[in-house]
Write a structure and sequence with these properties.
It contains no helices and 19 strands. The protein has 215 residues and is mainly β. The N terminus is likely disordered.
Length: 215
């Protein structure tokens, strides 16, 4: 099989002519200990063609006093619902620059989803349960994905272009060096990337307290 290898800014590109698909990129993200990194957001920004944003609707549940999923991607202009599936009340809020909002103490599902009209990262908290953290990555590119439990993600059907790359994770220690991927004709590109993350710091849940409607 005819194979070719490219090394650009620390990223390995591989294309196999016999297995190629039009404009597909498969990504694998690992941390400094070579462990697969779940919940890594990867955004591709095309240099030469304009994209049309199609705002979407997403859901972040509140289950067992946690945000589930912890990280989501929302296309700019989209909205998120925050169902409370616990039998207690939650108070969702964010003070992030990209979106500031509050959903005061409630049970069930708020009637109106929250719209996100500015790109950036929105950090979620709960005014009652300090350990609850969630993240909404509001993207201005439709070419945005999140890695799975194996640290893998895929973008398919990309038009010919050069794509600048942004990588984000809640524990990312520092910004990555500038990276670009080029799509020309029919290609299958496999990308492996190592990122350095900070240790997990999580507020402990209180122990031995009697349950109340908001505990």
């Amino acid at each position: 099989m005819n194979q070719r290898y490219l090394f650009i800014w620390g990223v390995i590109f591989w294309g196999g002519a016999c297995q190629s698909l039009a404009g597909d990129i498969r990504l694998s993200i690992r941390d400094q200990n070579n462990n697969p990194l779940i919940n890594t957001v990867i955004k591709l920004i095309p240099e030469n063609h304009k994209v049309k944003l199609l705002p979407d609707s997403q859901i972040i549940d509140q289950i067992n006093k946690e945000y589930v999923p912890q990280v989501i991607v929302v296309i700019k202009g989209g909205a998120v619902s925050f169902p409370n599936k616990d039998n207690i009340k939650h108070h969702v809020y964010s003070f992030s620059e990209a979106k500031q909002f509050e959903l005061p103490l409630y049970e069930g599902t708020p009637a109106t989803p929250v719209a996100f009209d500015q790109e950036g990262v929105v950090v979620l908290g709960c005014n009652i349960h300090d350990w609850m953290r969630g993240y909404i990555y509001v993207s201005d590119s439709p070419y945005t994905v999140i890695t799975d439990e194996q640290g893998k993600a895929e973008l398919v059907g990309l038009p010919d272009d050069t794509y600048q790359v942004e990588i984000w994770h809640p524990q990312l220690k520092k910004d990555i060096d500038a990276v670009s991927y080029s799509i020309i004709g029919e290609q299958l590109i496999n990308v492996e990337h190592l990122v350095e993350i900070k240790p997990t710091v999580k507020i402990r849940r209180p122990q031995g307290r009697r349950s109340r409607r908001y505990n």
